[in-house]
């Protein structure tokens, strides 16, 4: 059973901001979709199906918004799927779309993810009480802070590493015109002096709350051959899930993340990720997750991830750049954040990342996670088609 | 050469007006165990898992993340979720099996309507700026559709009453149904729809196992092969749609190959009696086709599971040898906005 190779030929994002009061939800998603179609030099008529994702419907207060968005996304008369896998949803959505092409069900698929957080209050959406369940405690930061603390204790990492990540990502964001936070006067001292929110996570080590959308046009080999600009080829993609709460769970380095990465590397023929992969867009909503995920994804031995960060390896001009776009720390329209990682990975191997382009990026990993480190989705894209 | 994929097992809860005493996970677990037991598979044997549900029924964000615990997701599993009826989760799983990445898939969905007012909840599906603030509820919108059909001369109130009566009479043979037997047509809820034209409000869950090729034959004596499956969406705004017709159903049926041969059974997801009239026309179903032998959505309507149940019921008839070629349909959105059609076949006997 051979799969159809999947190519990314169009990418579009909105300029992410705290509140897009000038557009409706439909207007927001249409902006990203049109930009992706423009990049691919295709029209709505060329799209066979639409796959859309976002995080909880409670964030905007619209139940199953794909129904309302069918008109705006040119989906009328077409198949439309709506994916929701918590924070990993942007990645999962892209993978569901990619499977439609890989299975030869459709030739060209538009996939899109969004969040218009200004329409509601995400902190509230995340904090509704659930009987007999551990509360998530004031959004996500309260849940993740103890796991960061556990990482610091286990690895012996100095408590300066988190601020290094934030300082790097916010500087990278200055080179990305779509990024939400453009802190032109950012300094390491400012990050370190920012208020402590959930010890050890400081204000400047925390993702913002953004409005934004990201879209991609995925197509088959024939579609890629017609594409006006270089395609990114999907070399591997996988999803893994595990329960959020159970006694045996390793919150610092969840097994689902390791298994997901291993599956992607197997598909893509990656023997040594540190050597074979040129750059990574990973889901880092709180700065300390960079060293944590470096280990989880196999770029560093257990307890050694922080050393890569500290020695500058993950800087834009380092040996393994991480979050060239500025990452989730600079832009977080939650439902779209995973797809932005996937799309930024594709931009890099297409050589179209502009000022935040990494020279010679040929294989780049896009990574997303969600829930209480419960859901993982990843893809590896390359400048050359699979098998070449 | 595309892979052959079949529904090899189906299980559902008894659908009930309220399941206050149990959580979603507790409602779901017996169904998951039952469907796996039918195939002898364990969670760890399943190649891909996909579910369908909606946060709005539970009234909180990420409600599906806890349901996953009921699957037994350790060691980590390959898994995904659609915020849609489980029929679309089955579609995603079917795609995954087609790629060859997995040979078996577990699909499940669930809906508890009892915690809130489902009529009010479903208004939140509508255009959030222009329509939802007016709170037009699902029954009112379905009544618009029914009146449009009556005005067009496609049906009348006695004919609609007959749809309700037939569904509930058939449901008498379905141990899982919520409403069965003689049910009076009742008073008007929203003219021209009476209580007998509307689905019961209820809680329930369903699960299906899919398998590819030889694996399907190992797991099931008579697999229900998915010969085709497709889904299409229409415009959201009711003002730009002809409510007496369902072009998306017709197109999905065409793409699924429904018109390439006669079907003997059709399980239609028509929560309101008048919607069966629309679907029969779009799907060109003659009087010889057995429609909703399970009682359909008028006998049990756990939102988000009712569409998957149609596929499961159609497949189960093939498993039992009561059907050779069956059509299953699922819908989503107000007035049949989005529709999925699957064509299932058993091996020749």
From TrEMBL, chain A:
One of its GO terms (molecular function) is acetyl-CoA C-acetyltransferase activity. It holds the Pfam family Thiolase_C_1. The keyword Acyltransferase applies. Residues 243-372 form the Thiolase C-terminal domain. Keywords: Acyltransferase, Transferase. It comes from the Bacteria. InterPro entries: Thiolase (IPR002155), Thiolase-like (IPR016039), Thiolase_C_2 (IPR055140). Its EC number is 2.3.1.9. PANTHER family: ACETYL-COA C-ACETYLTRANSFERASE, NON-SPECIFIC LIPID-TRANSFER PROTEIN-LIKE 2. NCBIfam families: PRK08313.1. This is Acetyl-CoA C-acetyltransferase. It comes from Streptomyces griseochromogenes. The lineage of its organism: Bacteria, Bacillati, Actinomycetota, Actinomycetes, Kitasatosporales.
From TrEMBL, chain B:
It comes from the Bacteria. Coiled coil: none annotated. One of its GO terms (molecular function) is acyltransferase activity, transferring groups other than amino-acyl groups. This is Acetyl-CoA acetyltransferase.
